[in-house]
Amino acid sequence: MINFADFLLLLVAVFWGVTFKLVQNAIADMPVFMFLFLRFFLSFLLMFILFYKKISFDKNSLKAAFILGMLNFLVFSFQTFGLLYSPSSIVAFITGLYVILTPVVAFLFFKKHISVYAIIGVILAFLGIYLLTGADIEGFGRGETLTFIGAVFVALHINYTDIYSKKYNLYTLVTFQFLATSLLSLLFTPFEKGDISFSADVITGLIVTVLFATVFAYFIQTYAQKFTTPTKTAVIFAMEPVSAAIFGYFYGEHLSIIQIIGAVLVILAMLISETGDLLFRKIFKGA
């Protein structure tokens, strides 16, 4: 059955998917790295104000938080620059490859066991994301390469979160991960072109992403990964493009039959990954 930790991760995926359109609107009025700096620095301030009494300032926790923040920054950076050279559908599909890369990284670098049901879930999620995004890859150029590197960093971030969440202070990991990401983003703001405009879309994007897609989402991810595996986390996070597609529908974006099939496959992948072992035992017990 889907446990409470997995349900929390599902909420995170939904929030990330819902805010995709809001972020897209916001960065049309503000340079990307400046938006990222504001998003993560405001998140850092909010976390610090709310939980400063629970934060540990020990060296190991701070070091782990910085590593997570650096990986998080690299994810956003490579995805963003990938969008400069490739269509968003291609970027979305290649980013979704972290569903496959996460268990591969877990097995090769961290010696994590992968269940057969998780593997089935990974394959179905991969196919579902492909159909959902409508990707049509004819060549693998600069944009595709940058995006693929970003997907590798997503897989690394999930795996390192799995390790660190079980060893170090939760509040330190989340709070100072935000600070690291914001400071790294700030370093690159001088190289961006474009005016800084606090339009309604930017303000809305900051409020929603800070409260729900950053403070809530990263706190819940770090907490919930204490109780589940990196592979299951990746499969559950495959719900992000599903929720993005559903939310986009209410903004007037059309969903084709193929995309709906893709969304169903992602949901099926999550269910098999979570309940496959239970269903298998019930079927053979009743046989």
Describe this structure in words.
This protein is mostly helical. The chain has one domain. It has 12 helices and no strands. α1 (4-26) packs across α11, α3 packs antiparallel against α7 and α4 packs antiparallel against α6. The two termini are 21 Å apart. 49% of the residues are buried. The mean pLDDT is 84.
Could you give the count of β-strands? 0
Tell me the β content: under 5%
Helix content: over 70%
Q: What is the typical, i.e. mean, pLDDT?
A: 84
Q: What attributes does this structure have?
A:
single chain, 287 residues, mainly alpha, 12 helices, globular
Q: Can you summarize this structure?
A:
The chain is mainly α and 287 residues long. The protein contains 12 helices and no strands.
Topology (SSEs and partners):
Layout: H1 4-26, H2 32-51, H3 59-85, H4 88-95, H5 98-110, H6 116-133, H7 142-165, H8 170-188, H9 200-224, H10 230-237, H11 239-250, H12 257-286
Helix pairs in contact: 1-9, 1-10, 1-11, 2-8, 2-9, 3-7, 3-8, 4-6, 4-7, 5-7, 5-10, 6-10, 6-12, 8-9
